[in-house]
Amino acid sequence: MARQLSARAMQQLERFSRQYFQLHLNLDFPDDVHLRNVEFQRSLQSRLFSEDGVKMVPPARYQRRVLKALMGRIEQSIQDWEEEEISDDLMNCLSSLFASSLPTEVVSAQQKSYVTYTLSLLPPQDQATPSITLLEARNLVAAFGNTGLRTWEAALHLGNYLCGNQDVLVRGKSILELGAGTGYVSLLCAKHLGARHVIATDGSDDIVASLSTNFYLNGLQDSTVIEGKELKWGQALVGGEYPAWNAGRTIDLVLGADLTYDGSGIPALASTFGDLFELYPTMKIIYTATIRNPTTFEKFLEACRANKYTVENILYEIEKIELQEGPFYSDQVPIQLCLITKP
């Protein structure tokens, strides 16, 4: 089916598919000239809504909302009902979704969903663009404020930066991520960027426990390259069953994204920086933050200066949303990347 589509049609189909599986809210619907092509419609159904072909399906409410909007656009695109038609497969999918019993909005807000991020900055692997699939509770965050249950823009931006500098920063290196949350950055380093070893840490034992699911979804459940560990900022680093923390292994690079949204945690974070620098004097920290409150970010910079850490801004602009091929995130939010070292 897809062979009968033009290169432009395939490009729009691919972009729409990537946004759909990322549960992107502002989808770029294909042009009318493609939507009214029944072969294009069948390709949409096969890629996005096939019960047999789609493994990590988005939540039913999201599927229904997207398919309803898609069908409306297809109807509007048709110019000659005698020559053009709507795919029966898409019609049947929509009918099935409307006939099925969907969870309430309250229940849906508490459920986790599969989210797949396409890594368009990396070269294809086995003729497919690399990706990371996570189980996230995106709506639960909005309802209850648990920020570790979804992947935020700062993590996606940091990931893009690492993809563009993998040979210098990540390949063959030992990585520690602070406030890992869903584990997106850690999984990126372990699965796609060639890190020697990755520790995904978080202060919540529940979030650390949930990391194993995301490791599994990315085929790393039995890997010795990545592990999850609880690490509470401000508390002394302990070695567990080993006399030395991290079994005496070195750490080359510490990563963090959006760790300073709550200013009350900054002193503890700076203290943990200090503990890590004491163990690994030559390590580097790359931190990225969405600047929601400039005053809070300035407090973070002040804490770094007070501890005599050197902070250098990294110039790395967000690609315009219309040019993004995955992962997709807003180009309207200011995100700051910085390199932190201790002389």
C-alpha-based Rg, rounded? 22 Å
Overall morphology = elongated
Oligomer: single chain
- Portion in strands: 15-25%
Q: Which spans of ≥5 residues are poorly predicted at pLDDT below 50? A: none
Kindly name the structural category: alpha/beta
What string, H for helix and E for strand, traces the elements in order? HHHHHHEEHHHEHEHEEHEHEE
Please count the helical segments. Answer: 13
Major sheet, described briefly? 7 strands, mixed
Report the CATH topology name of the largest domain: Rossmann fold
Count of separate structural domains: 2
Helix coverage percent of residues?
25-40%
Tell me the distance between the termini: 60 Å
CATH architecture label name of the largest domain: 3-Layer(aba) Sandwich
Instruction: Indicate the mean pLDDT.
Output: 92
> Reading side by side through the largest sheet, how are the strands ordered?
5-4-3-6-7-9-8
Give the class-level CATH name of the largest domain: Alpha Beta
Overview of the molecule:
- The strands form two sheets. This protein has a seven-stranded mixed β-sheet, with helices on both faces. Strands 1-2 form a two-stranded antiparallel ribbon.
- It contains 13 helices and nine strands.
- It folds into two domains: 2-102; 113-341, Vaccinia Virus protein VP39 (Rossmann fold, 3-Layer(aba) Sandwich).
- It has helices at 7-21, 32-35, 38-49, 60-77, 88-99, 105-109, 138-144, 153-164, 166-169, 184-191, 205-217, 266-279, 294-306, and strands at 113-118, 131-136, 174-178, 197-202, 226-230, 253-257, 284-290, 310-314, 335-341.
- Helix 1 (7-21) runs parallel beside helix 3, helix 4 (60-77) packs antiparallel against helix 5 (88-99) and helix 8 runs parallel beside helix 10.
- The longest helix has 18 residues, at 60-77.
- The chain is 40% helix and 15% strand.
- The radius of gyration is 22 Å and the shape is elongated.
- The model has no long low-confidence stretch (mean pLDDT 92).
- With 343 residues, the protein is α/β, with parallel strands linked by helices.
- Helix 10 (184-191) links the parallel strand 3 and strand 4.
